[in-house]
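If I may wish for something, please walk me through the protein I am sending here so I can picture the backbone:
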Amino acid sequence: MNLVFLGPPGVGKGTQAVQVARALGLAHVATGDILRAAIRAGTKTGLEAKTHMDAGKLVPDDVVNRLVRERLAEKDTENGVVFDGYPRTRAQARALDLALAAAERKVTGVFDFQASDEIVVNRISGRRTCGKCQSAYHVSFAPSKKGEQCEKCGGALVQRSDDLPETVLQRLEVYRKDTAGVSDYYRKSGNYAAIDANRPIDVIAADLLTRIKKQS
């Protein structure tokens, strides 16, 4: 079972990907995680990606695809994978199909998380991080009992610059531009489903598991 979770930042796909992977015994593969791991390990692909990042450039598709192929070669992916936020382009989608086909596997389910811009902005702009210990909070969903101070160390809670409402709206526009056509690519496969991500987390989780079990 190999599942693809699509959706803009803040839509909740990461939370659901972790839960589904844990519930079904699948590997959770997020490009951000494997990128950081490759850089920490000093792999050839990781160092190549780092040169682009240090120059303030996007990591090219071929480098990202190589990272994914390397991750798919690891033993914990044998039972299946939940791809979190990948692929982001048509080229990446085609590369994933080829990588899986080489191992006699295929994408078995695609779930496109969709929510209004207002909800996404509220979710992201409500995030707060402790300036000392980096503990995470949310003004609506997980507020600190100490107000604007961290419960753990008493440090001041801050809002990251890329979590400001105006920045979030810009990130959403970039996402739509970068991922144009990916949903259409998968709609033709017959295993695509749009997910209403405006709903509560537990409701979405139950809906997802029901859909996945039907597909399997």
